[in-house]
Records
---
Amino acid sequence: MRFAHLRGSDSSDFQLAVIEESTAILVSDLVSPAPATLQQLIEGGDDLLGALRTAVAEGTAPRHPLTGFGFASAVVAPPVVLAVGLNYAAHSSELGLKTDTAPTVFTLWPNSLTGHDATTGWPRSLSESVDYEAELGVLIGSPAKDVSVDDALDSVWGYTVVNDITARDIQFAEAQWSRCKSFDGFTPTGPFVVTADEIPDPQDLHIWTVVDGQTVQDASTGQMVRSVATLIAHLSQSITLQPGTLISTGSPGGAGYSRDPQIFLRDRSTVTVGIDGIGELTTHCRIYD
């Protein structure tokens, strides 16, 4: 199954929906009481997800054209967003940074979350070196503590697409990376979250980025230094990963910072990051004085 937080054309409020091809089925038309967010659905456990599957299969709920909606962030109010840096060798090398013996982990702040087809803006005075990063997002479904690599994927509820937008000048000026990646709107997610059963192998996914019509990242999640299972096992040694936790698993090579000439996101740039089998996530950029 795939889910999205959808906005009506005449409302800023969003609703959780099941997405089937080009149609949306509002979760509020499927079960009562209905979870208002994906986070509530995840916290409802297997029974709630099973009830939704049954209701969708019955085929009686209204279906709405997806074109009539906009998108909120696919992930709303997660317990935490954990980001993993330097998890593709090509990206580490192009930034001139060393892949450490343990994963580089930092948090992304909730104000940075935004949805597909949204506009993200930032002041020119803060940065003119803003970069893109296509990443596989992993959502935890059940509490994970001290899980083994072999069992780690059992903790996964689903997957989404993340664009880990980064102000490179700030990244290289500060010892920690949270601020440079957490401007308002710097963490687009979506459009969809796909349940784990739809992704047999998270290490066999095509991941890519297009900026203003030019393909700038083109890779496979199989090129990760540490697999999704390895990351979950490592993180769960020190913390209990709570349901709804979003893990952004790192970006492949091709960042704008390292290209010759460099490519940074400009005023009115459009960047689309995608992962086959999950979706394509587009962000419109504005720089203001």
Note: The mean pLDDT is 95.
---
Amino acid sequence: MTDEAAFILFQKGMEALGVKHEVRWVLDEMLRLGRGDSYLQEVLQRRSKGEPLAYIFGHWAFRSHEFHVAPGVLIPRPETEELVDLVLERMRSRNRTFPSWHIVDAGAGSGCLGIALQLEAGNSRPQLDPKLTLIELSEEAWPCLEKNIAQHAPTANLFKGSWLEWPPERIQVLVSNPPYISGVGADKPDESVAEWEPHSALFPEDLRRFPDASGPYRELIRLAQHCVEPGGIAAFELGAPQASWISEHVKQNYPLWSGELVSDMGGKARFWIMQRLA
């Protein structure tokens, strides 16, 4: 499908860009599409401009699932995959607490977090078979999100709007990977991330009011207070500025909740998981 000279040029070009590890992925995608040398040239040209490989492919793996992605949605991260495991563990340990489950993913983006939870909870032992609601404000994200719902979660409900506008229901699980980058000091995204991925998925709108990017978490915790049933779970991905603040905030203002910070595989405080006690 491709000649050796074209491949060597492509390999050297990717190595020069510092992304040699992506060569195998590109070759697999080229074979999947049935493309030839021109595809290698196209990928190399687009990568040389900094475009993420996920956007070039138009899809990206999350857990064992493939999700449609485009510049309107955040590219799924391995760290967020860990949050799925943490939530599933807690759901399984409470399998007899609720007769049925309803998961809400607030600020769903591609939908990878909520959809993976629904799929894997439905296939777990014990089988939980939860209802799923995906909340997303960004119109740019809706096309990818709708495709992923159609492919993976046709029974899911999509609420097009802010989580502040969503009419709360009684639910058992609230999850979110909200925008949490403050942009202050070392808390900045990589240049390629800032250039290509949606600003609204990286930086909160209310940074002037809350320079530590804690605004979304204040809203999400209030939302959890209104809609999560006793025994239910709220779980969020976060960054260092929020990790230094959220535990004391919940302790002081939400005595009916018990929470813990959990580190990712790299040892960074990455997740806040809390349970409603009453």
Note: Residues 4-49 form one domain.
